[in-house]
């Protein structure tokens, strides 16, 4: 795949991720699209000037995946302190191991002797 095709594919993936994640929030959507457009047009990234084009395309693909799977939007309800989280079908959930099933860490120390140590007066 050429660099141009890869860039277009990553750009479209990022737009789809933003549309899915920020649906209904015009202000955030406009800011995200403007930032994306400016970064795509720039010869060098303002945020990552050391990255070449291929690295920037790879980063954009990773950002699109992260937005799709890990970011949920909180929408303020009519109550003062209530927010409704907008999960969608691609949001990853329940991936953490419950605390009750985690293995307990055990520390192993050598045998204790009476021959002294760091604080002995021997």
Report on the structure:
With 122 residues, the protein is mostly helical. It has one domain. 43% of the residues lie in helices and 7% in strands. It contains three helices and two strands. The protein has a two-stranded antiparallel sheet with strand order 1-2. Helix 1 runs antiparallel to helix 2. It is extended. 8% of the residues are buried. Interacts with RIP1. One of its GO terms (molecular function) is protein folding chaperone. Its main location: mitochondrion.
Could you outline the blueprint of secondary structure elements for this entry?
Elements: H1 3-21, H2 26-41, H3 53-70, E1 73-76, E2 83-86
Antiparallel strand pairs: 1-2
Helix pairs in contact: 1-2, 1-3
Key phrases:
2 strands, two-stranded antiparallel ribbon, 3 helices, mainly alpha, extended, transit peptide, mitochondrion, 122 residues
């Amino acid at each position: 795949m050429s660099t141009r095709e890869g860039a277009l594919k990553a750009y479209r993936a990022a737009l789809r991720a933003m549309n899915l994640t920020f649906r209904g929030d015009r202000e955030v959507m406009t800011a995200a699209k403007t930032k994306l457009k400016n970064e795509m047009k720039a010869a060098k990234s303002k945020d990552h000037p050391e990255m070449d084009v291929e690295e920037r395309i790879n980063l954009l693909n990773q950002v699109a995946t992260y937005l799709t799977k890990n970011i949920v939007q909180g929408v303020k309800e009519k109550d003062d302190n209530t927010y409704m989280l907008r999960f969608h079908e691609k949001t990853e959930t329940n991936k953490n191991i419950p605390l009750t099933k985690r293995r307990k860490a055990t520390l192993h120390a050598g045998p204790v002797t009476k021959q002294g140590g760091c604080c002995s007066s021997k």
